[in-house]
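Handout for the seminar on molecular recognition.
Each group receives one record of this type.
Step one: identify the two inputs.
Step two: read the structure output and locate the region that could contact pyridoxal-5'-phosphate.
Step three: write two sentences on what you found, then compare them with the reference statements printed after the record.
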Amino acid sequence: MKIDPGVAAYCEGVLPDLKERFAKIDEIAEYNQLKVIKAMQDNRVNADCFHYASGYGYDDVGRDTLEKVYASLFKTEDALVRPLIACGTHALSTALFGNLRPGDELLSPVGKPYDTLASVIGIKEAKGSLAEYGISYRQVDLKADGSFDYEGIKAAITKKTKLVTIQRSKGYQTRPTLSVARIGELIAFIKGIREDVICMVDNCYGEFVEKTEPSEVGADMVVGSLIKNPGGGLAPIGGYICGRADCVENAAYRLTTPGLGKEVGASLDVMRSFYQGLFFAPTVVASALKGAIFAANIYEKLGFSVVPNGSEERYDIIQAVTLENKERVIAFCRGIQAAAPVDAYVTPEPWPMPGYDCDVIMAAGAFIQGSSIELSADGPIKEPYNVYFQGGLTWAHSKLGIISSLDHLVKAGLVTL
Ligand SMILES: *Cc1c(COP(=O)(O)O)cnc(C)c1O
C-alpha cells in the first residue's frame, strides 16, 4: 500500500501502552455481545423473521420480533425499530412530535442540541417546526467545567415542561460526552422535581460503548440511528425509539398515523440486515473505539490537541483532532479516503455544504452511503481546523485509516515524526 515504513512503525509504537485499554474494550464488547444474543434467544428469533414483508405490513413477524429484541436489549416496555425512520434526526423528531402537544415546553438541560434539531425544534426558523405548533423550548447550558447547572435546571422546570431531551454524545461540540452514570444522575434530579416529565435521551453514537444504556438509569425513551452504532454497518437505513409503552405508542402514531401506529409499515427485505447488524454491533463499536483511541494517542504524541485525549474514558465513538491549518485537514481526510475499501481512488476536496457556514471536506468510502459507523472523517475548513472522525467496521481497517492519514501528512511535508 506504499505506506512509509517509518510512519507505520511510529504508529505501531503507541500500541503497547494501549493493551490494557483495548482489553477493557474487548471485555465490554463481549458482555454486550452476550446481551444481544440473549435478547434474540429470549424472543425466539427464527428464520421466518428474515422473510420479505410487503403491503400494509400487518403481522410482520420479522419487524414485530425485532422490536421485542430491542425492547429486551434496552430493558424497555416497548420499541419502534423501522426502516421507515429515515435517519437519527427523523427518529428524534418523531419521538418529540409524538409526545409533545401545543402549549407544552421542551427543555434541553445539556446545552444546544445536535445541529439538525435546530429546525425540528424551531431554534432556527423552519416550516413545520415544533415552534410553529406552539411548543416552546428552553435550554440550560452546561457549566464551563462541563458539569450540570442544577440550579438553572430547577428554575427552568415549570408546569409547562413536558419533555426533557438529553444528548448523550457531544456530537461535534466541545463539551464532554455524558456517561450513562451521569445521565442517570441528571434524570434522578429532574424526576425529583417533577416525576411526570418525560426524559428522552438522544443515544446517537453511544450505543454499546458501555455495558448499560440510558434506559437502564431512568430514561423514558432512548432514540438513535441504525446507520450508526446499532446497525452494525449492515443496516442500510433506519432508526429506533425504545421506551415506556405510552411514549413509544405516541411516537408510532406520529410515524405512521393516529389509529394505525405500530400496526402498519412493512419491513420489505431489510430485516436480515437489521438482526445481523445488531448482532455485529458490539464488536463493530469496539473496533471504532480502538481506532479513536489509537488516533488520539498518535496525534497527541505529535503535539496536536485531541478531544477526547489519549487517556480519558470514552462514552461515544467520535474523535476530534485540531490540525491547525487547512492543508493538514485536507491531507488527513485524503489519507482516510485512500484507506477505504470503496471509492479509495477518489480525492476529496473541500466544498460548500448545506447547513455549514464554511467549506467542508468529507472522507468516506462506505458500503452504506453516509454511514458513520464506517470509517469516515470530516473537516470544516475554518479555525481551529478540527477534523472529526469516527467509525471503522473492523479494528484493522480503523488502524489502516489512521496510519494512512499520518502517511499523507508526512508525505506532504505537513508533519515530521
Ligand atoms: C448523528 C446524530 C444525530 C442525527 O442523526 P442523523 O442520522 O444524521 O439524522 C443526532 N444526534 C446526535 C448526537 C448525532 O450524533
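Reference statements: The mean pLDDT is 97. Residues 87-89, 114, 116, 167, 169, 171, 202, 204-205, 225 surround pyridoxal-5'-phosphate (CB under 6 Å).
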